[in-house]
Amino acid sequence: MPDRDDQLAELGRLWRDQPTRSPNVEEDQMLTQVKQDARSFDRTTLWRDARETIAAIAVLAFMGWRSWSEAGWLPKAGFAVATICMLFTITHMLRARRLHGRVGDDASLVDRLQAELHKLEVQAELLASVMSWYLLPIAVGTTAWMLALDPPRGTGKLAVSLMGLTVVFGFTGWVVWKLNQYVLRAELRPRIEELQGLLEQARAGQA
Amino acid sequence: MKPKTPLETRYLGLIDKNRGRIDRLCRAWARTSADRDDLRSEIQLQLWRALPSFEGRSSEDTWLYRVALNVAMLSGRREQGRRRRNETWERTAAAPPPEPSPPESLERQERLDQLTEVVAALDPGDRALVTMVLEGLPHAQIAEVVGITANHVGVRVHRLKQKLARLMAAPKEGIHA
User: Fold this and answer.
1) Using the beta-carbon criterion (under 8 Å), do A12 and B147 form an inter-chain contact?
2) Helices marked H in chain B — which ranges?
3) Is the pTM of the predicted complex or chain greater than 0.80?
4) Predicted-assembly ipTM surpassing the 0.85 threshold
5) Cβ contact (<8 Å) for A109 and B69?
6) Across residues A106-125, what is the average pLDDT?
7) B positions 59-98 inside 8 Å of A (CB)
8) What percent of chain A has a predicted confidence (pLDDT) above 90?
9) CB-CB neighbors (< 8 A) of B152 in chain A
10) Which of A31, A104, A206 sits opposite B152 (nearest CB)?
11) For chain A, is the Cβ count within 10 Å smaller at the N or the C terminus?
């Protein structure tokens, strides 16, 4: 249809001929700013990853130090259980991150949207199952370590300690779990739906 | 002044050559001049970050549009857009002309404003396509940027021509893509 083609060509010319905004900063200033932003972005990412690692190492170091300053094998065994539980949590998290399937900044729109969607779905799955891979192992590991460090004498005292720790960890876990579910419901799910919509629009009918 | 590295020279050349394109893309994806400045900075940042890994497997245009459109589609523009849905779309001119413009120039400006509103009202998938069509990119290249087949681009562009014609003919307050 030549009319529509002509109109599109005319609109294209109108679009391309619109005034270009003259840069309000000098070339060198712009480059400095961009490089500064890039460094700050890298630093933020590095610090985010480092924070998690430092926290895990600090907790383990403290537990190890406390366990080895006590005599006998029981505190060490408790520390071993806590370490295994923490390693399980870290491995689960790292494996999930590896599943993200990273794509470059210059991937096609569809590939990029798919990768972002997959990343969010993995995060949503992690939040939904936070009880089994994070809260429970940490509660079990910490309980084992605390009981081994200062074992209660007698069955009655052991039962009371166990109940006390269960209540404390149960309540803390419940609060953390509720917060995670809130983030999942209020932030991740809507973002996933938004990305699904964008992906559908980018493909728009392609089988 | 410190001499520029080859990467810096290449980057500045790229930005200089594509300033108009990046500017127009920002106008299509961001509502106010402040949002456009943010988007422009974000695109420039991602281009800088992505440039060292650009190996020339695709053309420079394809690469640039991929990076820029990925930023536009995935950055926080949508949230800002939602918050400011009731605000009017800022006019396309970078600054108002200081002296009275001749009538044909005013008419042209009005038509450009209308086109910008029409483009901005399209859903993000169509908007990405239309911005590239208006820039004169061939279907094969658009297909590479989006990640769909060239045939599919052809079908969608055909539909978009009809949509654009309808929306450009509609009175201004009736623009709803």
Assistant:
1) no
2) 6-17, 19-29, 33-50, 60-74, 77-83, 103-121, 124-134, 139-146, 150-169
3) no
4) no
5) yes
6) 87
7) 63, 66-67, 69-70, 73-74, 78, 92-94
8) 15
9) 205-206
10) A206
11) C
B150 touches chain A (CB under 8 A): no
- Residue B54's pLDDT is 87
Highest mean pLDDT: which of A39-48, A131-140, B135-144? B135-144
Contact between chains at B12 and A31 (C-beta distance less than 8 A): yes
Tell me: pLDDT of A32 over 70.
yes
Question: Cβ contact (<8 Å) for A12 and B161?
Answer: no
- Cβ atoms within 10 Å of A65's Cβ, excluding its own: 10
B131 within 8 A of B139, measured Cβ to Cβ: no
Closest Cβ opposite residue A201 in set B124, B149, B162? B124
Distance, in angstroms, between A147 CA and closest chain B CA? 48
pLDDT digits (tens, 9 = 90+) for A104-113: 777 888 988 8
The predicted model gives A2-25 an average pLDDT of 80
Q: Give the span between the Cα atoms of B108 and B125, in whole angstroms.
A: 27
* The two three-digit tokens of residue A88, written as one number: 């399980």
Q: What is the pLDDT confidence band of residue B82, given thresholds at 50, 70 and 90?
A: very low
Closest Cβ opposite residue A19 in set B78, B93, B152: B93
A79-97 residue pLDDT tens: 998 899 888 888 888 888 7
Mean pLDDT along residues B18-32: 90
Q: Do B148 and A28 touch (CB under 8 A)?
A: no
Residue A187 DSSP symbol = I
* Rounded distance between C-alpha atoms, residue A156 and residue B33, angstroms: 70
Q: Which sign, positive or negative, has the C-alpha torsion A122, A128, A132, A136?
A: positive
CB distance from A15 to chain B under 8 Å? yes
C-alpha distances (whole Å) from A150 to each of A72, A74, A170, A175, A194 are: 11, 9, 21, 27, 51
Question: CB contact, 8 Å: B162 with chain A?
Answer: yes
How far apart (Å, rounded) are the C-alpha atoms in residues A164 and B177? 61
Q: Do A31 and B94 touch (CB under 8 A)?
A: no
